[in-house]
Every structure is written in C-alpha cells, then in structure tokens.
Amino acid sequence: MTATITRRTALTAAATLAMPAVLRAEAPVVKLGLIHPMTGPLAFAGGQCRLGATMAIADVNGSGGIKSMGGAKIEALLGDAQLKPELAASLVDQFAEAGAAGFTGAYSSSLGLAATQAAAKYDLPFSIDSGVADSLTTRGLANTFRLFPGASTTVDGAMGELAGVNKAAGSPVKTAVLVHENSEFGTNTANVLKEKLPSIGIEVLEIMPHATPTRDFSNIVLRIREKKPDLVILSNYANEYVLLIRTLVQQRVPLVAMFSVLGGGFSLKFAKEQPEISENVMDYNHWFNPRVPASLAFRKKVEDAGNTFTWEILFGYYAVRLLTDAFERAGSADKAKTLPALAASTYYPDMLPYGPTKFVSGQNQGAQASGLQIQHGDIAVIWPEQFANAKPVFPRPKI
Amino acid sequence: MPPLDIVLAAIVNGVLTGGVYALVALGLTLIYGVLHIVNFAHGSLLMLAMFGCWLFSAQLGIDPYVALPGMTLIAFAAGWSLYAGIIGRVSRGDDRGILLATLGLAVVLDNLALVLFTGDTRTIDTPYSFDVVEFGPMLIPVPKLVSFAVALVLAALLWAFMTRTDHGRAIRAVAREPDGARLVGIDPPRIFALSYGIGIACLGAAACLLLPSFYVSPQVGNTFVLVAFTVVVLGGMGSFPGAVVGGLLVGVTESLGGLFLGESLGPIGIPLVFVAVLLLRPSGLFKAAR
After folding, report:
1. Per residue in B135-192, pLDDT tens?
2. Residue A305 lies in domain
3. Interface contact B267-A211, CB threshold 8 A
4. Which residues of A touch B267 (CB under 8 A)?
C-alpha cells in the first residue's frame, strides 16, 4: 500500500502539531530539573527525593499553578546522576539547554557540589534537597540555596541533645566508642565528634573505622566489649548501620545507649522490620514536626500510596516548594527575578521542626534536625522539647 | 595485642564467616573451576536468590530454612534455563562469548532487581536470628553455625556427585575433552546446562542460609562475588574441598586481619594470602576434581 498525503491530511497534521504551542501560550510552563541518583547504591534515597519533588509539583499544579504567572504549570525534567558528579553536572547543562528555570537535587553532597557549580555557570537557582556538606553553601555561589541544615549545625545540635538527655538522666554516659565507615562522610563525622564529645563530659575510648561494605561486625563488637563503653556512636551507611546494631544486640554488649548523627540506617523501615533490635536506638536526624497535623497527614498520604516514608521525601517536597514560592513572589521564572526572591525568602516549611526561615549566603539559618528515638516500632521525637512527642528512654533497658 | 579470648573468638568467627564464603564459592568452583565459564552473573544470581528467599519469608511467611530445598530446586531450574535459553545460545560455546553473555546478564539482572525491588535494603526477622550458643566467653550466633554446617554437607555432597555418579563423570569428561566426550555419547551443551544449573542451585541454598543474618539489596551480590572468585582460585579450580578450605582460610584471614590491622587495613590480608598461594602453589591448595 502506498501512502498518499492529501491536502486535508497535511492540514490536519499541521493543526495537531500546532496545538501544543497554542496550549502553551495559554498556560505557560516552568521547567524544573530534578537531579538525583536513581540507580546505584543511593538509588533508594534518590528515588525518595524525586518522589517528594513530584508530589510538590502535583500539589502546586493541582492548586492552580503559579498564580502570579497566569497559572503557569510546573514541568519536571528528570535526571539520573547515578553516583557520578560529572554526570550530575552534565545533566544540569542538558536541562539548562532544555529551558529549565531552576533545579533541585541531588541527595548526596558530592553530586550536589558538582551540580550546583554547573548551575552557577548559568546563574540558575539550585534548591538543595539534601546533602549536608557545609561547603555546599560556603563557596559563595549566589544561585545555591539550602532550606535544610548543614553538617556543622547538625553536629552542634546533636551534642546539645546528647548533653541534655544525659544530664536529665543523671549523666550515666561517661565514655564512648565511635564506629565509623572509612570514607569522607564517616571519617569527618567521627573526627568532629571526637573533638566535641569531651566538652560535654564524654571521654572517647576508641575510634574504630571500617570499610563499606563490611560483611561482618563480630570483630568490632568484640573490641567494643573489651573497651566497655557506656555509649556507641555510629556513623556509617544503612547496611552497615543495621548489621552493626544487630551484632551489638546479639553479642549482648551492655550499653546505656546507641546513638548516631544522621544515622544511615535509622528509619521507619528499620523500626518496623527489626523491632527487637531497633528499640530505643537514638539518632539526631531530619524528621517532621509531629505536633503539626499536616505532617502526619503527609506521612499517611505517602504510606497509603504504598511508599515507605522517609525524611528525604519531605526534603524533596520542600526543595521544590521553596523554588515555586520564589516564582510566585517574583511573578516570573526569570533568574534575574527569582534569585533575589530566593535570597529574601522567608518561606516556612510548616511540617518541619524549624525556626523562622532566613537565608544567609544561601543557607537557611532556622534549619535544624531533631533528637529521635525508635520507640515501639515507630520514630519518636525526643529533643528539643518544643517539638517532642515522647520522653527519651535513657538509659536503655539492659539487653 | 588483644587478649587471647578475643583472638580465639575472632578465629572462631572467621571460620564461621568462611563457611558462608565457601557456600557462595561452591557453585562458582563448578561453573568457573571445572567448566571455565567466567560467570560474571554469579553475584547477580545470588542477589536474585536472596530476593526470592526474602519474598518467601516476608510475603508468604515461609522460614528461609524451610524454603531451602524449594529455593535450591528453583535456582537449579533457573540456572539450567538461563544456560540453555540464553548463555549457551548467545555464546555458541565460545569463551569470550560466554564472558560477554554472563556480563550482559548481570547488568540486566541488577537493573531488573532495581526496578522490581527498588534500591532499598531488606532484612527479615526470624525467631532464631539473635539466638546464640554460649561457648566459654564466646557467644556464637546460631544462623552462622547452621550455614557453616550446611556448607560442609553441600561440599561433601557435590564432591560425591562429581566423583561417584555418571553425571559427575560426564561433567569432568566435558571439561577435559569436549570432543572426546561427544564421541562417547555425551551431549556437551546438556552437560554445560546441568553444571550451570547445579552451580546456581548452590546459590539458592546459600541465599536461604545467608538471609537470617544478612541483608539483601540489588547490590548485595558484589559483596560476595570477588571473595568467591578468590576462594575458588585459592582452593584450587574446581575442587570442592578446596572451596571449603579456601573459604575458611579467607574468613580467618579477614577476621584476624581486622583484629590486628583494623577494619580499614584488615582486608589486605585476603589479597596477601592469595598472592602468597599463587606464588608458592600456583594450582591452588587442592587438586581439582578432574
């Protein structure tokens, strides 16, 4: 069969092709680049960030788009940066070419460092959704904004929690062993903790690094048993975090508490899958404000859709909302207007336990993490008191 | 110098962990050691078997130890079909072809798992996950004792199969002289598929023994596969007793290395022993089952 193009079909085709352009003219579209690790070892966390971001986009579009821009709809450009900073940077180039008005991402600090720098070349706003490295907002990049806390704020907050909880219980913790994974994240955290712990009256008996992945923690736990510390502080990724705590419980190491700062494996899933061993494990980490009903409703919405709730979803969500709020106030997605709007932003993420929003060099000064503890298979906020929904179990009952 | 009881505990622990390494290496020593198939998909197939076992446990409530015979059979069938349906056909018996086919298979399986199960890490909670046997000052985890014992039994069974049965003899014949084997009426493609199936069946068993004390995620295979290749070469290509002794040696080396050198530097113990064995006994510790 041969195809003949008649004048009528040509006209119909032309009309169809022209249609989207006409529609676009009616409701302008603002493109946002979402850059996350979607494959490789960080795929789960990256996927959670993306899920939050797409929920935010659905919320904004569902409630009439950016009103000051005539109801402009947000359109996501999705990118998988795997675990490669150079890929994150090239995704920025690609999306900038495609007309992105801003970016969110990139879960890991190393991806974030590369991506924000790439976006700075175009002066396009980048709203960081997680990645705690202080350097993300201390390099003087005028396009980079973080609504969430950086590493040093978080460590200071963690020391505050540990000191406060310990003092209230009559200071049962006097000594600690630090176990950390031996790449930059774990080593840095351990070094900072080692410096700060003596100032709150806790002596560090030993620092034990380990590789990622570590298949077996029996040796480390043998050495911990020998040192007899009151407290074990972990800084490692999810799999090793869970394996280490399992081994500590199995080998019946008598501890006042197990504590972590941004613990890689501290999650609702850990609480639910391993109720026996996760009970009373403490962490200083990101979480929602349990006293705000909206945050519980948000969690329920995520869980009802069959997803596991983690803080990354909230961060992915608010990273987008920070940008769309700036578009709304600027009445434009033009970078010349959105960057000043972001710098002056007081957008408050009402589900998070934060102080008032104020950006200094792109870092929100009101951001902070909270003291958390797994209690009865769920995550409870135990510190600071103004956001707490449970009392700390400290010291933990003997295993 | 750590106290003696800690050193002892570390050795016991190394032996038990070595049992797990031996389990993963048993299948590989048949596939890689006897048939010289560089099975890049070994880790990915272990990961899939672990997810299978996780599904049985978390979704159907079947205990991993109860699921073991079933998982072993499923893994055998999967291994056989993979070889007969894909690897054998794609490679047409060519070594490089097999290498590329298994590598491609690994990439496909890893990403398939990522789509099906997401990048999330999963564990299961069994009533005995935290049971220990007290032995002097040592607390020995029950799941590790079980996996160690089963590794020994499986190695013995495989060894007996290879040396005492017609199929075992046929596998050895094909490995040694495919043309000769064909002349006496053995069908090499069928034997390859059978061996691949048995090798993967070992992974099915290993998965069920690992899961009570380990986690599963789409990347978990990489955690074991390099160790398994080391164990196979160390123990002697294709030797089942070699896989067990090699596994134990690697386990103890890793454990003592960790104790004396720290967990960061400790892992260099394995390559050191590996290089030493290759220098002094290039054919591995044991003679292969030829």
Report:
1. 877 888 899 899 899 989 988 998 899 899 999 999 989 888 888 989 999 998 899 8
2. 10-149+292-367
3. yes
4. 211
In a domain, A394, yes or no: no
HEC secondary structure over A331-390 = CCCCHHHHHHHHHCCCCCCCCCCCCCCCEECCEECCCCCEEEEEECCEEEEEECHHHCCC
Cis peptide, bond prior to residue A151, ω within 30 of zero:
no
Do A164 and A275 belong to one domain? yes
B163 at the A interface (CB within 8 A)? no
Interface mutation vs chain B, best among A80, A207, A222, A312, most B CBs within 10 Å: A222
And the tokens for A390? 């449970």
Position A16 pLDDT exceeds 50: no
| Min Cα separation A219/chain B (Å) | 6
How far B127 CA lies from chain A's nearest CA (Å)?
10
B264 and A211: CB-CB below 8 Å?
A: yes
Residue A333 predicted with pLDDT over 90 = yes
Tell me which amino acid residue B68 is: L
Instruction: Answer whether A182 sits within 8 Å of B10, measured CB to CB.
Output: no
One domain, residues A193 and A234: yes
What pLDDT is attached to residue A22? Answer: 43
CB pair distance less than 8 Å for A44 and B121: yes
Burial label for A174, CB within 10 Å (0-12, 13-18, 19+), is middle
User: Can you give the pTM of this predicted structure?
Assistant: 0.80
ipTM above 0.90 for this complex: no
Terminal Cα-to-Cα distance of chain A (whole angstroms): 79
Residues A25 and A123 in one domain: yes
For chain A, how big is the Rg over CA atoms in Å?
Answer: 24
Is residue A336 in some structural domain?
yes
CB < 8 Å from A in window 121-150 of B = 121-125, 129-130, 132, 139, 141
- Which of A64, A66, A62, A61 has the alpha carbon at shortest distance from A76? A61
Per residue, the 3-state secondary structure of B92-127, as one string, reads CCCHHHHHHHHHHHHHHHHHHHHHHHCCCCECCCCC
Q: Residue A33: phi, psi to the nearest 5?
A: -90, 125
